[in-house]
Amino acid sequence: MITRRHFIGAAAGAGVLVVAGHTPATAAPSTTPASPGTWEGDISANGWRIDPAAVSGHRVEGSNATLALHGSAAVVLLHVARRWHYEIAPLDTGEGGGATGHTEDRRVAADFESNHLSGSAVALHPTAYPIRGSEGLWPHQEAIVRDILADCEGVVTWGGDLTPAKVSHFHIEVRPESRALRQVVRRLDTTRFRDSQTASPGAVRDPAEAGRRERARRLERAQKH
């Protein structure tokens, strides 16, 4: 997996001047170390009940990666992970920390990390993109993430838009009983049918299409914290 840090470091070592036309806000170096705490209670920060019995393993389609997720969150978060795997970097090579879903570890560096306890969050390449990390996505990769969020119609929040930032993080923003979540699940569920408007493994629509770009920008303005 080639990240911005690896590329710039390699170029500098070779005596190459790298001029970046755009640096994502998440790429700013951190000056404040994470201060882990312990999440208490039976509900994660996004309002989902912490119930290990509701969590099961799911393979990320098109890869050998698996994620433990809450049944009501699985379809949407697997869609996020699948597109990341195909369009940003593979999740099953062992690089970047792979992918993490549900965990029973209650140590958190920010409240939103508690969403892993309920199985309603994923971290994709979490060691490459840790909380408060200095590494950001390339501009074309961030455009893909924005397009993925638009696919999810506002029911998924990206950690790159949160404070503190965590580029690898995605969680379900709405409650399990949300009508919006049910609608997105029906549209993205690849076990039921293939929606021509939705990316399928290995065949994705162009995030640069004018209509998709505008939809992604509107959602970014609405979601950015």
Overview of this structure, please?
This protein is α+β, with helices and mostly antiparallel strands. 27% of the residues lie in helices and 12% in strands. The strands form three sheets. The chain has a four-stranded antiparallel sheet with strand order 4-6-8-7, covered by helices on one side. A two-stranded antiparallel sheet has the order 1-5. Strands 2-3 form a two-stranded antiparallel ribbon. It is globular, with a radius of gyration of 17 Å. About 13% of the residues have low confidence.
Which keywords apply here?
alpha+beta; four-stranded antiparallel beta sheet; two-stranded antiparallel ribbon; 8 strands; 27% helix; 12% strand; globular
C-alpha geometry:
globular
List the total number of helices: 5
- Class based on secondary structure composition and strand pairing: alpha+beta
Number of strands: 8
Q: Please compute the radius of gyration using only Cα atoms.
A: 17 Å
Average residue pLDDT: 82
Strand order of the largest sheet: 4-6-8-7
**Percent in strands:** 5-15%
- Summarize the amount of helix as a percent range: 25-40%
